[in-house]
Design a protein that fits this description.
The strands form 6 sheets. The chain has a 7-stranded antiparallel beta sheet. The protein has a 5-stranded mixed beta sheet with strand order 15-18-19-21-20. The protein is built from 27 helices and 21 strands. With 794 residues, the chain is α+β, with helices and mostly antiparallel strands.
Amino acid sequence: MPHRSDELTSTVNLSVDEQITESKDETFDSHRAIDIDDLNYTSRQIELATPDDTFIDLKNKTLLYLQTTIKQFYPHFDPHKNDAKVDGLTSSQQSILYLYNTFNTLTILNVPPLNHANAVRQYCPLDVLTEGVTEKISLVSLETVMNTMQRVLSFSNKTDEIIYANNFGLAPDAIIKLPKHNEITEVQHEAIALNIARLLGFNTTASTMLLYNGLPALFIPFDKIEKLSEFAEGKKETAFETRKSYIDYSTIQPVGEGLMPDQCIEDFGNIFAYLYLCSDPDAIGGYNQNKALTDSKNLYVFDQAVKIDTLLSIDSCVNLYIGTFSSLSRHLKGRNKSLIEDSLIEEKIHSMIALTKNKLLIDSLMDCVHQTHTSAIALAERLNPALQKKNLVDLATFHKDALSLHAKIDKRISEIFSKFPKVDNEAITTETAERATQVIPALVLEKVINNPRFFTDDGRPYKHPWTENHNIKIMNISMGTSAIEITLNKSIDATLASTLFAKAGIQWKKTPNKNNSIIMPLVEYQKIHESVFFPENATQFSVEAKYIPTAGELELIKQTYKTNDAVIQTSSKCIETYLKTITNSAINYVDKINAMRRAINTIKQLPVSKDVGFIQHMLRKLHFDIQKQLYNMIENAETKALMIHAFNAAIKLDRISIFNDVIMTAISTNHSFTGYLRQCIRHANMSTNYHLSKEHSTLFLAESESSQHVFLNHLSLTQDSPSQSEQKSMSPSKSVGPAQMSMNEERDRVSLSVLIKGSHSPPSPTSASTRNQPCVKESTSAQIIETPSQWEFH
């Protein structure tokens, strides 16, 4: 660890911002500045305040007002005794009593100013229960208290208990966190973690260390957040040592039917390396309560500490790996870390590179921490060692802890790439961190060849291909001028490789005389991405993609979800029958649509009980291919373009099955549906965060079902819908009925003689060859090719 105490002696009064600016570190942003005064907790003492006359007068008036109300339902109420019996009182009446007692016993605390703010902030402690094992004191701002009192006094109906209870409650807007189990270093660990989060530019709380009743503590003001527990769900587990329940392997709740993952919540990959640095397996919590979102989409960091013990590492799955010690406690199991791991590999690796680039910034912060403690110790000894004895002991503990923590942080950063593949037989280090971008395709490939799953065993969708504990690992990537060689820890199965690379359209070959190595052109290597192997997991639909699994792919899916042979045989026969029908040019479009429905029903009814993820995965693939076939039935170019955008909207709002159902019904019953397509697109465009996505997904479903009803009953769609300019001015929450969906009668009431490739009425099988474009049968052969001379590896 670099030692810079001599340098910092002359700059100890500078903020980290000023120090880094002097060193001209280009990775530093001014908004991430942290002042070392915030680290000197001994200069920040919370003190009891003396109420002023304004507060005393307002409090007395409010208490008299509430006494009048309480005596309406509790005639024997004695304001001088705090022994009111709540038996027999309604919950609203109890709330009024609680409000009275809260106002009557209020004290005011002066919290030292944050970040050089001029005014001392004043808070009142509240007697409320808080989550977790850490002792916390809940606070409400004095301003909120006085505003509530004024609202109570202005309330005209003293007897309306319900309105009292619902409108005049006091909720915490800050907390003071005290040391857990008297371990004072826990406070410093959390303060440092949140400071690092700010330095790295993450959205986090404006916390600071201070003294409360002689104890080091952390003051944390609340922001407008929603805990991740409101957005995520997982699998219920029971801790062996305590028999307490918790959830694990959480995913973000889908916004619709559950076939597609949410798109509106930001990718969490940017915080991946930060959580590794903190090495806290319980960073997310047993009920996803330790992290939050702002604006229903952006991750918010709180309740985070840097652990002195190194409990996490990063493996080649680009997951946070936990060792065998995880069996000791539920807090060490990495509960729900899947929420962070289920991110783009590119985002996670870029977060690792960014962490190494910001090492100087983190070093400077840590230097400031222990230098601040050194200065505080000297000051305490100079003032009065006897009176400062407790502070001196705590400061010495903090100083030693900060030095140890700094060493651990340095080591973690230096080892961040230790389990990654080598490049040209050289390990990636912090000095060569940029080379990590070269292994991104290789790490995607490693994930692909280890049979990733897209749904949990209870059917919840992952955002990205999910794996853990890889059996096959990539050990080295040798970069040639025009080709690369990838070396694995064991030989790769030729059938597996052929199936995967054929699906992705990537050219490759086995390295001569090496069973555990493959070669491919550099341009082919650069094509490797999740979407080329799994187009049904992309956020954008492609009419060129191959969605229906080949026999080889079906075998891989079987292995992924551990599905039995009987289910696979039924699935294979279903797919074979489906493909035989839709690729037959002699079969009319109505019969083809019936074949689509039969295939969907067959997959839905598969006898799978232990791992319903298989059914979900097969349904997703099938629906994407059905959309492809429906698209190919359409003749009109504008309608085809609308269908792609509308299906992308259905993907975003997780409504692909009802969308396909409506289109199949519209085609079968000879109805125009371009107005419906525009409505689908409109809902997606208005879904800018998670809650709006759920709202518009529900509207999408309701309007789809209404349209389905119209089409099935051959009702007329003759009423024009609002013009495009009128639609833009509509309220986001206004639902447009199916009768309004045709944008312009002359434009959209296109007969199926134009929309469908063929005549208006369902054609007979004998005449259908000119009416339906047959689908091209997808090749199952692998693209193993001879290596041209320009591929030669150098």
